[in-house]
Amino acid sequence: MKTLFKPPVYSLPYTLSKYLALGCKLPEVIAAATCKPAGLMELQGKIGTLSAGAYADIAIFHMDTNLVTFLDTRKQTRQGNRMLLPYMTILNGQIVFRDLRFLN
Description:
Helices cover 23% and strands 28% of the residues. The protein is α+β, with helices and mostly antiparallel strands. The protein has a domain at 12-52 and 61-85. A hairpin with a 5-residue loop joins strand 2 and strand 3 (77-80).
């Protein structure tokens, strides 16, 4: 089986959490993954927003506050204390992923 994400990337939430460890604020990190790319693709108002009329593509995360060691492409490590953990993903209005903990 081929792995989609390999170290040190793993996933978008992992990469966004690295930026939190570097000192970026959560709103900046979320904007960098949502409305900023939407603007670059000239899709503002359709993706990267929760506005009425936009596509119903939504990711819901939990902010875990345990100590985590992040690895970069040069095998350098950095400590962080916040990790975005995916709880639910909705694509085009349909739930495509839900962590069982989200049910509680």
